[in-house]
Design brief:
With 206 residues, the protein is an alpha/beta fold. The chain contains 4 helices and 15 strands. A hairpin with a 5-residue loop joins β8 and β9.
């Protein structure tokens, strides 16, 4: 199963794909860049020499021949691209990354650009709040506005946290997928069944 979000998002020459398995066939001359995600807050600028980044949860590239890959199974896959000057990016954001400041680090990594409002942000399919139960201790990490509390159970809204953090940094063009990875059985969800399989997301210049 491959979902092409490019048309839905009205993207011009930028391709965003989301799949329940690794895509192996891409246009010629393209190089897939991926990372060993560790729920860190590290953002790496991709060079032309390195195809794999260790202990990294975000990638940025200015090379039109790069395809950036991200893996998720409930966490937020955040896709980034500049509408004026070519730049693409992916960010893996779970509660740990959001707590550690990965959104702030993304903003800093893009500080050389004229304005963060020139960037389009798309938060792909991820777990919905009603299916993401967490411990009460999480109230120490995030404001109460991000929680749904029902019968002494706490449910955290990762998407809302990310959107708020992105907006505070200066990103304005933000879209969020309504697809829940937990509820849709075509998607891999760690919370649903403890799977080791991962969804794969890709962004590249078409």
């Amino acid at each position: 199963m491959i979902i092409d979000f490019s048309k839905e998002l009205h993207l011009d020459k930028i391709k965003i794909l989301f799949s329940n398995e690794r895509i192996k066939t891409f246009p010629p001359k393209k190089k897939i860049i991926n990372m060993n995600q560790t729920h860190s807050s590290k953002i790496s600028q991709v060079s032309n020499k390195t195809l794999y980044y260790k202990s990294t949860d975000g990638l940025l590239s200015n090379n039109i021949n790069h395809i950036l890959e991200i893996s998720v199974a409930d966490c937020l896959p955040i896709f980034v691209y500049n509408k004026k000057k070519f730049c693409i990016g992916v960010v893996h954001a779970g509660w740990k990354g959001l707590k550690k400041g990965i959104i702030s680090n993304l903003s800093q990594a893009l500080s050389s650009y004229d304005s963060l409002s020139d960037f389009k942000i798309f938060i792909g399919p991820s777990i919905s709040q009603k299916n993401y139960e967490v411990k009460k201790d999480f109230l120490e990490y995030f404001e109460r506005e991000y929680f749904l509390i029902n019968d002494d159970k706490y449910y955290l809204d990762l998407k809302k946290i990310a959107v708020k953090q992105l907006a505070l940094e200066g990103f304005k063009d933000i879209e969020v997928s309504k697809i829940c990875t937990f509820e849709n059985h075509n998607f891999h969800s760690f919370r649903r069944n403890g799977t080791e399989k991962r969804m794969r997301g890709y962004i590249y210049y078409e």
